[in-house]
Amino acid sequence: MTEPWQFGNVPGRLQANLITDSKIVAAFIKNAKHPIIVIGSQTFDTALGKSDTAKLMEKLYENNVQMVATANMKELAEVGFRDTPWMGVVDITNRLTDSAWMGVDGRGQYDLVLFIGVIYYLQSQMLSTLKHFAPKLKTVALDRYYHPNASWSFSLSEDEWHKNMVELMNQI
């Protein structure tokens, strides 16, 4: 069994499925009717680097994945995403649990939520909330650290994670 990255993270009996191949995430994105990605403040600080992160965001955008930035996302504007909606992590989490919310784009409920670069302990609580209060929502933690409260999560070394993210860009 994969262990949470922080010891205090006690997920209960329902835990994330381990992503062993980026093709799984690519299939989720392609099959989703209305996906969204929550882009955290640490997104551009990863081993992926600014250039590849920008390419990943562009590929997701081309595949109709709605983006929402949390805090400190001036980097998104610097790589060309100036009109990305902004919302605090607590606000986006609460809205995702609200069945009446029509989404950032006004097109209705999301069926897939991807997370990248959100501070680990915040993302852990966001995923726990969604697991309990929006159980039909599929959640994918794209960071390299295991998030047991997600539906699906990676748990990889930096090199393996980087390789999987580059493969994901090529598959979507």
Please give a structural write-up.
With 172 residues, the chain is of the alpha/beta class. The chain has a single domain, classed as TPP-binding domain (Rossmann fold, 3-Layer(aba) Sandwich). The chain contains six helices and six strands, in the order βαβαβααβαββα. It has a six-stranded parallel beta sheet with strand order 1-6-5-4-2-3, with helices on both faces. β4, α5 and β5 form a beta-alpha-beta unit. α2 packs parallel to α6. The model has no long low-confidence stretch (mean pLDDT 87).
Give a quick rundown of the structure:
The chain is α/β, with parallel strands linked by helices and 172 residues long.
Q: Features of this protein?
A:
6-stranded parallel sheet, single chain, globular, Rossmann fold, alpha/beta, 172 residues
Layout of helices and strands, plus pairs?
Blueprint: E1 17-18, H1 22-31, E2 35-39, H2 49-62, E3 66-69, H3 74-78, H4 89-97, E4 112-116, H5 120-133, E5 138-141, E6 152-153, H6 158-171
Parallel strand pairs: 1-6, 2-3, 2-4, 4-5, 5-6
Level of helix content? 25-40%
Q: Give the beta-strand count.
A: 6
How far is the N terminus from the C terminus? 29 Å
Counting DSSP H or I runs of 4 or more residues, the number of helices is 6
| Helix/strand class | alpha/beta
**Cα-based radius of gyration, to the nearest Å:** 15 Å
Please name the CATH topology: Rossmann fold
The CATH class, by name, is Alpha Beta
Count of distinct structural domains: 1
CATH superfamily: TPP-binding domain
Strand order of the largest sheet: 1-6-5-4-2-3
* Overall outline: globular
Portion in beta strands: 5-15%
CATH architecture: 3-Layer(aba) Sandwich
Average pLDDT, rounded to a whole number, is: 87
What's the SSE pattern?
Answer: EHEHEHHEHEEH
How is the biggest beta sheet arranged?
A: 6 strands, parallel
Low-confidence stretches: none
